[in-house]
Amino acid sequence: MNMDQALQTFLVEARELLQAMEEALLNLESEPDDKEAIGAVFRAAHTIKGSAGLFGLDPIVAFTHVAENVLDKVRNGEIAVDSDLIALLLSSGDHIGDLVEQVAAQGGEPDAAALANGENLLGKLRAYLSVAPESAPVARKSVAPQPHAEVHSSGGGLVGSDTWHISLRFGQDVLKNGMDPLSFIRYLATLGEIVSVVTLPDAMPAADEMDPECSYLGFELDFRSDADKAAIEGVFEFVRDDCSLRILPPHSRVEEYIQLINELPEDKIRLGDLLVKSGALTQKEMDECLFLQSLLATSAESEGQPETVPALGEILIEQGRVQPELVDAALNKQKQARDNKAQESRYIRVHADKLDELINLVGELVIASASAGLLAQRSRDMQLHEATSTMSRLVEEIRDGALQLRMVQIGETFSRFHRVVRDVSKDLGKDIGLVISGGETELDKSVVEKIGDPLMHLVRNSMDHGIESAQLRQQRGKPAKGTVRLNAYHESGSIVIEVGDDGGGLNRDKLLAKGIERGLVSANQNLTDQEVYGLIFEAGFSTAEAVTSISGRGVGMDVVRRNIEALRGLIEIDSAQGVGTTIRIRLPLTLAIIDGFLMGVGGSSFVVPLDLVTECIELSEAERRETRESNYINLRGTVLPFLRLRQLFEIQGKAGRYENIVVVQYGGQKAGLVVDELLGEFQTVIKPLGKIFSHLRGISGSTILGSGEVALILDVPALVQEVAGSAQGGQKRIPASA
Amino acid sequence: MISHQVENGVYRVKVEGEMTIYQALELKQGLMQCLHDCAEMEVSLAGVSEMDTAGFQLLVLAKREAARLGHPLRLVEHSPATLEVMDLFNMAGYFGDPVVMPQ
C-alpha cells in the first residue's frame, strides 16, 4: 500500500463517514435523545479527524477538532440537541466534506470561500463551547473517566508522575507501507502535550545490513493529556498491526513499569535510566522497581522455574490486586477488536475498473461459448454437444455472478434525499416529510450513479410545484404535512423507481392549453392523459406556470427525460388532481449482458430482451389473410396491435412460409412483433452501436451470434410505444427518444 | 541528492532536496561511501527541504558508523525541515552538533 492508495482509502472512508454523520444528524432531528445517533456523529467526526491527522491534513484536523469538542459535550449531556445545533452540525459536516475534497482530493489549500465559511462555523461552534478560541489543539475532555485510574489511585506502589507513558516500537515495514512514525507523533501532539521523547535507534543493524527503507526506531514518550486510553490508542490505529504499543496511564503501578521494562527489547538498566530521565519514574520508584523485579525473579527460582518469570498479570491477579471486572473489561475489548476484524474481512474493496474488465471478459466468454456451442451442434457429436451445453450453463452462472457483483442497493441513493427534503422544505417554508420504501432493490452500479441527478430534479420539483402550501392543504382536507415518496421495485427485467407526492396533482386542462399555445399539440388532437402529462418533459415547457401557480425555479424536466432515456429507460406520470402525482422511471437492470430472445426475419436476426417477452404465437394461414391489411389481431378477446419487422426494416426476400408473433410487454402495454422464425433463448452481450447509427429508431444495440454474424437488439420500449400510438388511430408518433 | 567536495581530507557533503524514503537507498550509499573514504566529514543539511523518518534514520546510521570508524562527523546548517524532525524526536543531543540556522 503506498501513500496514494492510503489517501484514496481515506477519501472513500471520509465520504462514507460524512454520509453516516448526516444520516445520524437527521435522525437526531426527530429523536433528539437518540444516544446511538449522537455516538455515531461523534465517532464519524473523531475518525475523520484521526485519519486526517495521519495524512497531515491540518485544515481538516483543526476544524473537525472543534466540531468534535462540541459533539463531546452533546454526548455528555452538557449541550442540549435542538434544531439550531443540528443545522449548525449539518453545515459543519458539509464544510468538512468541502475541506476533504479541496485539501485531500485535490491536494491544495482550502479556497477563500471555504476559509470564510469555516471561520463563520467555528465562531458558532465555539459559542457552544463557551470558551475562548482554543489556540493549538488542546487536551480534550473525553468520555467516561478512566476506570483504571480509580483502581490505581486506591492502591499502593504508584508512581508520582501524572503523565501517560507510551512505549512504541515500530515494525520494520511501516515506512514501506507508506506510514511515517513522525506523523503519528505529530498527531499525538494534537491530543495533548508531549512532555518528553526518547528516540531509541538501538534496533538498527550494522551499516551493511541496514535497509534504508525499513524503520528501526523505537520511542519512549511521556505525554500529558486528558484523553483516555482508547483515544491514545486510536492515534496508532493505522499501524496497530505493525507496531508494538504499550501505554501506561498516569500514576500507574510500579509493577507495570517493571513489566514494560521486561517486555522491551532494549537493555533493562538503560531503559530504567531512561524512564528516570524522562520523568516517568523517580529514582526512588526505580529502585523499588528493580528490587521488586529481583524479588520476583528469586521467587520464581525458588519454585524451581528459573527460566520463566511468571507473567506479571498472573501474579497481580493472584495477589488480588487487579479486580476481576478489569480483566473482564480487557477481555471484552479484545473480543470487540476481533469482531471488528471479522466484520472487516467480510468485505473487500475492489476497484470498479477491475469489475468492468471482468464483465467485458465475461461478455467475450459468452460470445465464444455460443460459437463453440454452435460448432458442437453442427458436428453432431453427442458428447461434444453435451460438454458444450454444460459449459454454456456454467458460463451463464458466471455471467450472473459477475453482473451481481456490480449490483448495489438503491437505498443509499435514496437516503441522501432525507437531507435534500429537509433543506428544501425549510427553504420553501413547507412542512414535508420523506417516505422511503424498496431501498433494498438492487440495480447496476453505473445506473445508480447516473440516476441521482434526475431523481434530485424530480424530488425538488415535487416539493416545489407538487405539494401545496399548508393553508391550501388544510382547505382541501389533507394533513398539513406533505409527503414525498421514493419507492423502488423490480418488474419484468426492469427496475421501477417512483417519485410520488400527495400534492395538488397535474392540471390536465392547463397543461393542454399550454401545449396548444406552444404549438406542441394541435387543438383537435385526441390525447391520452399520459401524453398530456408527458408535455412537461418538453424542452422549454415552463412547469412553474403550467402545473401550479407557485412560481419557482425552472427545473429542466427535459434534461431529466434525456438522462433517463440515455440509460435506455422510460419515464411516465400518474396524476390525479388534488390527490398527488407519481412519476415512474423504468430502467433496464443492467447495461451489459442480458438474456435475449433470438428471432429471424429473412436472413437477418433480431434480439429482444427475454424478460420482455410474454408469449409467442403462430399466425395461422387464415389469420395471415385476415391481418394482411390491418395491424392488430384478436388475442383471446383483446386487441393486440403488432408490427411486421419485415416491413419496418424493409427486409428484402420472399416471406417465409410461416409467420409468428412475439408478444412483448413494456410499461403495462403489450404489442406483437411479427417475425419469420423463432430461434430461442440467447445470451446477449450488448455492444453499443456506433455514433452514425444513433438516430436509428427501434434499435438499441447489436450483438454477435455464435456464428459470427451480427444481430440487432430491438428497442422494445420505442417499438411498443410506436405500435400503441398507431393502434390508437392517430398518425402522430410519440417521440420516444429525444 | 548528494554531492561532496574534499578540502584537506575533510569531506564537505551536501544533501539537497528531499530526504525521504524515496531517496533513502541512494543517500545511504552516498553517505556510507563518503564516510568510508574520508578522514573527517561535515554534512550540510541547508538544502534539505523535507525529511521523514527514513531520512532521519540515515543521519543516525551515519553518526553511529562514523563513531565505529573513528571518523569525526558533524552535521551543520540544519534546514528548518531537519530541525523540526530533530526536535520532534528530541535527538539534537544525540548528534551533539551545535544547531545553527542557515543564513
Descriptive tags:
heterodimer, A: about 750 residues, alpha+beta, Four Helix Bundle (Hemerythrin (Met), subunit A), Alpha-Beta Plaits, 5 domains, five-stranded mixed sheet, 25 helices, about 50% helix, flat, disordered C terminus, B: about 100 residues, alpha/beta, four-stranded mixed sheet, 4 helices, about 45% helix, globular
Provide an overview of this structure.
The complex is a heterodimer of chains A (738) and B (103). Chain A is α+β, with helices and mostly antiparallel strands. Chain A has 25 helices and 21 strands. In chain A, a hairpin with a 5-residue loop joins β20 and β21 (710-714). Chain B has 103 residues and is of the alpha/beta class. Chain B contains 4 helices and 4 strands. Chain B has helices at residues 24-37, 53-69, 80-89, 92-95; strands at 2-7, 10-19, 40-51, 73-76. Chain B has a 4-stranded mixed β-sheet. In chain B, α2 (53-69) links the parallel β3 (40-51) and β4 (73-76). The two termini of chain B are 21 Å apart. The interface between A and B is medium-sized, with 21 and 22 residues.
**Shape by Cα distribution of chain A:** flat
Number of domain units of chain A: 5
CATH class descriptor of the largest domain in chain A: Alpha Beta
| Helical amount of chain B | 40-55%
Number of strands of chain B: 4
Proportion of residues in extended strands of chain A: 15-25%
Kindly, what is the distance between the CA atoms of the first and last residues of chain A, rounded to a whole number of angstroms? 47 Å
- Uncertain segments of chain B are none
Strand percent estimate of chain B: 25-35%
Helical content band of chain A: 40-55%
Biggest sheet strand order of chain B reads 1-2-3-4
Unreliable spans of chain A are 131-156, 300-313, 319-323, 545-555, 729-738
Report the major sheet of chain B.
4 strands, mixed
Q: What structural class should be given to the helix and strand makeup of chain A?
A: alpha+beta
Secondary-structure element order of chain B, N to C: EEHEHEHH
